[in-house]
Write a structure and sequence with these properties.
The complex is a heterodimer of chains A (255) and B (412).
Chain A: H1 2-20, H2 28-40, E1 43-53, E2 58-68, E3 72-79, E4 87-91, E5 94-99, E6 104-107, H3 124-128, H4 133-136, E7 137-147, E8 150-159, E9 169-175, E10 181-187, E11 193-205, E12 208-218, E13 224-235, H5 246-249
Antiparallel strand pairs in A: 1-2, 1-13, 2-3, 3-4, 4-5, 5-6, 7-8, 8-9, 9-10, 10-11, 11-12, 12-13
Chain B: H1 2-12, H2 16-56, E1 59-63, E2 76-77, H3 81-88, E3 92-107, E4 110-119, H4 121-127, E5 134-137, E6 147-151, H5 152-158, E7 165-171, E8 177-188, H6 193-198, E9 199-203, H7 204-210, E10 216-217, E11 219-224, H8 230-243, E12 249-253, H9 254-257, H10 259-296, H11 299-307, H12 312-347, E13 350-351, H13 354-362, E14 368-369, H14 375-392, H15 394-401, H16 405-410
Parallel strand pairs in B: 4-9, 6-8
Antiparallel strand pairs in B: 1-11, 1-12, 2-10, 3-4, 3-7, 3-11, 5-8, 6-9, 7-8, 13-14
Helix pairs in contact in B: 1-12, 2-10, 2-12, 2-14, 10-14, 10-15, 12-14, 12-15
The chains are: A alpha+beta (255), B alpha+beta (412).
């Protein structure tokens, strides 16, 4: 409730700032906010390939996904065949998995939130808590650096005291040219680097250009990484709420 | 020497009351120490034995590094040459191949994290006892591939009942999320929260299917006759595996498989030692007091002895002899009575009942007091007591050795 009030107050204020700050030097908040909006859009749908690399095996999965902001998401595995038809449904802070083999829907309990999502280096919690950086962190421009030949703002994000986040500090590099993210480093509360996220290969999908390769390197487990590769994407399309329902979750592959 | 012995013996009984009190003090201290060591070792061995025989095993064969960082990838093929080596090992009561993994159990709207144990019921019965802790239902048979036995709290948490069907989801060795249906055949109550609220036992082959572990296991738990046989078995088994070129496998004794148990045991032992040393210090001063008193009170006598030509050396020997007589009588009676009580408690353990028993059981201990009657306990305690008795007459002996005849005669 408190958070909702804060959001109700903060968001309009932030908007006023953005409008007022037009043309003037940009603040870290404005940069991060615009970058996030560019990346996500109001809604999206697409196909992507997830490649998991571990010292023991490397495997790829293809998926389809539907996304409405940060609130709702449905992800369906389309290959390999052993896992095809398994789905993940996210509605606000809750997560369900549909397993085609046993035709069951499982709600992921809080105790399992930190477990790996479909064997990747992402946890279930990452999907649920894919919260807005602007809401949970205070930020400042720390430096200007070059990442992959692109001049970037290096923005330091520190969690707000009351923010329900797991990171102690984040460094986020945003390209000055087009405000797309280039790299993110996540540190825990003790200051150790836990993950590095690399955004590469900017491609145009419909009306927007986004990085089409998202590589997450797990810095706590050597030689573990997960890569997302956009195959198709559409942004800001109307999506029916029915997509994010149990009926749809438990239906076969007929969309 | 003979004369000195006679003198010493008579001196001891010259002041009967004091000597008897000293003997009693030593007897009691010895008795108490023997019984305390006996109970300390007995209770712990009994608990350890009980714990390892329940599930973990006296020792385990694992892939090197599995203990510190368990993962499905650290597995090895079974059966095969490993089974032959383990089976050929002498003094082994039983062995059981197992798969251990984390998973998620779902029953209708409820789901819970679970510790999956893939086991072979026939092999488990040979060396382990956890299947006796059935709380309801029955254990699945060795041919059953679609039944699970859950911890009783896990069943409660899922709001399921015996006979219901549930789904278990787990990430396999190849990274694929496996999911299978199982029927609940029974529940277990093992007394530890990790098991009761987490454990899901299924057949080894079912676990292999769920986790893409065809023909592989994580652990072979081994049961031997008793704790004393562990070290030898570990060494021998490690040697056999080495000879068979299976050097990516490690043999771990229970202390390494269950470090928390070992730590708790060591911690308890420290408490025992502090208590023991307090007792020893008290006894030391008791003996010192008696000997010093008996020596100073006889300074005139010693002075006369010296004056008529007794060597001071002999007087010192006399003091040691007297103390040894006192100490030996006390130690022997203390050891005999202590050992008798230990032997009795070894065969007739005291069992608590009621609330006290429940508290014990909740912490995973048996509500029983058992003693160990080992000759090594008696010998170490006897040696220790003799040592402190002799140490405590060092100062009185020093006083005697420095005594001058005339000073002794005039000593009041």
């Amino acid at each position: 409730m408190v958070r909702r009030i804060i959001r109700a107050v903060v968001v309009p204020v932030a908007l006023i700032h953005i409008v007022a700050g037009e043309g003037a030097a940009q603040t870290a908040e404005q940069i991060v906010k615009r970058s996030e909006d560019l990346l996500k859009g109001v809604s999206s749908k697409g196909r992507f390939r997830m490649t998991i690399v571990t010292p023991d095996y490397t495997r790829s999965m293809e998926m389809r996904a539907w996304w409405v902001g940060n609130q709702k998401a449905l992800i369906e595995i389309t290959s390999p065949r052993r896992e095809a038809g398994n789905k993940t449904l996210k509605v606000n802070n809750e997560l369900w998995m549909y397993l085609r083999n046993t035709e069951t829907t499982i709600k992921i309990p809080p105790s399992m939130m930190l477990q790996s999502w479909n064997g990747s280096d992402f946890t279930n919690d990452d999907l649920v808590r894919e919260s807005s950086l602007v809401e949970d962190y205070t930020m400042r421009i720390a430096a200007e650096e070059t990442v992959d030949g692109e001049l970037c703002w290096k923005i330091e994000l520190l969690p707000k005291p009351t923010a329900p986040v797991v990171w102690g500090r984040i460094f986020h590099w945003i390209r000055k040219k087009d405000l797309l993210p280039a790299r993110t480093e996540y540190f825990d509360e003790k200051g150790a680097l836990m993950r590095t996220m690399l955004y590469q290969n900017v491609k145009r999908f419909g009306n927007r250009a986004v990085p089409s390769n998202w590589l997450m390197v797990n810095n706590t487990k050597p030689n573990h990484s997960t890569e997302f590769q956009y195959l198709e994407a559409q942004f800001d399309i109307p999506l029916s709420d029915r997509i994010f329902s149990f009926q749809e979750l438990e239906k076969g592959r007929n969309r | 020497m003979n004369l000195l012995l006679k003198l010493g013996w008579r001196n001891v009984w010259r002041n009967k009351r004091r000597s008897i009190l000293t003997i009693l003090a030593i007897t009691f201290a010895t008795f108490f120490t023997v019984v305390m060591r006996g109970l300390g070792i007995g209770v712990w061995e009994y608990n350890v034995q009980n714990t390892v025989e329940l599930f973990s095993g006296y020792l385990q064969v694992q892939r090197s590094g599995y203990q510190d960082n368990p993962s499905l990838n650290k597995s090895f093929p079974f059966p095969g040459s490993i089974e032959e080596i383990v089976r050929a090992e002498e003094g082994i009561k039983g062995y059981a191949p197992r798969i251990l993994a984390d998973g998620l159990i779902s029953y209708r709207e409820n789901s819970s994290g679970a510790a999956i144990f893939g086991i072979d019921p026939n092999k488990e019965r040979q060396g382990f006892r956890f299947h006796q802790r059935l709380n309801g239902g029955r254990f699945f048979e060795s041919h059953s591939r679609d039944e699970v036995v859950l911890g009783y709290k896990l069943l409660d948490n899922l709001k399921a009942r015996i006979g219901d069907t549930l789904v278990i989801l787990a990430q396999g060795r190849d990274g694929v999320m496996g999911n299978l249906r199982f029927r609940i055949s029974g529940t277990m109550k093992l007394g530890s929260p990790e098991f009761d609220a987490m454990a899901a036992f299924m057949h080894l082959n079912a676990a292999q299917e769920l986790l893409a572990m065809e023909g592989r296991v994580n652990v072979v738990a081994v049961s031997v006759v008793d704790l004393k046989a562990v070290d030898k078995a570990v060494e021998h088994l490690a040697g056999s595996l080495q000879r068979a070129q299976l050097d990516n496998l490690a043999v771990l004794p229970w202390e390494e498989v269950l470090p928390e148990l070992k730590q708790a045991m060591d911690f308890d032992k420290i408490g025992d030692w502090i208590f023991l040393w307090t007792l020893i210090i008290i006894v030391t001063f008791g003996i010192l007091n008696t000997v010093l008193m008996s020596v100073t009170e006889r300074f005139r006598e010693f002075g006369v002895s010296l004056a008529i030509g007794m060597q001071p050396k002999k007087l010192v020997t006399l003091v040691f002899l007297e103390t040894s007589v006192l100490a030996l009588i006390g130690i022997v009676t203390g050891c005999i009575t202590g050992q008798l009580l230990n032997m009795y408690l070894e065969t007739h353990p005291i069992t608590f009942t009621g609330e006290f028993a429940q508290i014990y059981e909740e912490y995973g201990f048996l509500p029983q007091i058992v003693a160990a009657s080992r000759i090594t306990i008696v010998l170490t305690v006897a040696g220790l007591m003799l040592l402190i008795a002799l140490l405590s007459c060092l100062y009185p002996a020093y006083r005697v050795s420095k005594l001058e005849p005339l000073k002794g005669i005039r000593y009041t």
